[in-house]
Amino acid sequence: MNSYHSAANRNDPAAEPPATVQLLANEQTRQCPYCNEQISVNARKCWRCHEYFSLPLDDLDDRAYQFARREVLQDCVLDIKKWITRLGCGSLVAVAIVALLGLLRFQDVLEEMVADRVAQTAGPVLEDTQEKLDASDEVLDDVEDKIRLAQHRISQFDWLQSKLSETETAVLQIEDARQGLESRAEKLADQFGQMEHRFISAKRELRHDREQRLEDMLGSFANDVVTVEKLNSALEQAGTPVSHQLVEALAPLKRSQIDLISPRSLSTDHPAVLFSPTARLKWQFGRHAIGKVKYQVQFDTQPDFRSKHAQQAITRLTNHELPVDFPHGPVYWRVDALSDDGQVIATSSVGNFEFYSDSIDRIRQTGIVRVGVTYSSQGEFAYYDEQQRQLTGYDIELARWLAAHLLPDTPDVQPVFHNYDWRQLLKSVGRNEVDFLISTITITPEREEEFGLNFSQPYYKTSQAFVVLKKGGFRTGSSLLGRRLAVQSGTSSEMVAEAFTEPENLSRSTNVDESFDALMRGRVDAIVTDYDFAQGHVRTLGDAAAIIAVQETDFPEDYTGIRSEEYGIAVAKPEAYLLTRINNAIASASRSNVLESLKLQFVMNNPKVGPRATKVTKLAMPPLDKPGGLNPLRR
């Protein structure tokens, strides 16, 4: 055997390999993948290129044993050769002794040596292999867990797929039902259209029959009634001086047959107000068809039609639009019907109205801002002072301050207050009767939607309260649950009152004075109103009344309405520029401590404190029960 495999050379990587290595008999071989040398299939290192190989894990134990056994046998053969050499090649005794010793102990020695060699060489490899096997088992366990999870997910996906299929089926059924309903709706619409057509036809026939009968009745009646035309004809036939005077006196009555339709004013003192770039005039002349009569329209800024802005137009229509360059402000107009030769055959009365581009344009031209309020005989926000004969209070003085600071280029703007009951107050701004509203109006989206309002930023914050008589013994808001309550109709306090008592125990009034009268007469147990609003009224009653603030714990559990309130100024929705001006003025009043001063003066009852003096126009306000509730000095 080559000496390269001796014990000295096996651990010496610098030793030169022999030209060839002797292999065991019947030992399987393979080629080295690096140098193509024939080596044992169990070898872990090539004897020529010294490259190591990794063995398959399944055959590692057996191959390590074979490799160790081969090395031990090679060492034993070398030892036997040495002993034979020492004893002499011809010594049969030595050969016999060696053979005998080999027969006796060779097998045991061989097994022990092989075991030792396996433990030395294959032990670390086996431990490392075992660790790798353990790690592989853990990896396999993880893989199995992931496989089971994937199988679970696949089962869930199959379940979701089935549910999706069921949902698609249901959607298709719903779509079919919808199409069926649509077809039925179309059939019903067709039937309704046919019924509507029949109804219109029957209504038209009925109206035609009624008109025909009415014309027949009027025709017979006209033959028996003395008309202006008949009287005029009889006087002309008389030919006397008196009859001629009567004919001249009847001439205006004969011609006044044209009705002015739009714009229509309630009276000369209360003209209609339009906010538009221009205005269209409309009238009606009896039963004359459009185009059959020629009309002369006159319009001017003065009622005598003699100013430099006086204009007139000829048309065969029953409407006419003012020129774009016609000045904004008061407008007076009338219409004459002309015959073919230009004679006036009918005339109208003189109509008047005002038109501007918006509220700011009207305020700037007139120097007056119209303010809608609801006042009472007492209180702190808006009341009529009999001694001073003028309105005053927190809201009134704030409106005067805002009017003076609304337009920086027009500092002399004066407010004109118009008194309304509560429900009419919220409607007045939409009818262009006032420019804005200020009367402790709580900001709510419902009011903006119902009355077409836009609210300014809040200028005052308060909460709800009960006003009670001290002799009643009520101390908390919860003690008034289910009691007899009074509230002003249409206010935010009405919602709170409805939450505290039953409808049969709730008394609604048009103004707060009626509620206080009911309290003092014992018809109700308490009044629901704003806390700060109640202070002025309670102050006039002295020790007889008290205020109970509504706490959060007093409200019923199912109550979802307002709990605290913010007052705002209301304008009509189209008046965005006016609202911006009002918001700027409120912000200026807050920075100047005007709001705090007004609260100290009127709400806290400190007359020595007040905002900076503002020029005020004293107006005699009408009582609440006056028809319309409007200021007689209104433009």
Automatic annotation (TrEMBL):
It is found in: Cell envelope. PROSITE patterns: SBP_BACTERIAL_3. Keywords: Coiled coil, Membrane, Signal, Transmembrane, Transmembrane helix. GO terms for cellular component: cell envelope. Residues 171-198 form a coiled coil. Residues 368-606 form the Solute-binding protein family 3/N-terminal domain. Its main location: other. It holds the Pfam family SBP_bac_3. The keyword Metal-binding does not apply. The chain crosses the membrane at residues 83-104. It comes from the Bacteria. Belongs to the bacterial solute-binding protein 3 family. This is ABC transporter arginine-binding protein 1. It comes from Adhaeretor mobilis. The gene is artJ.
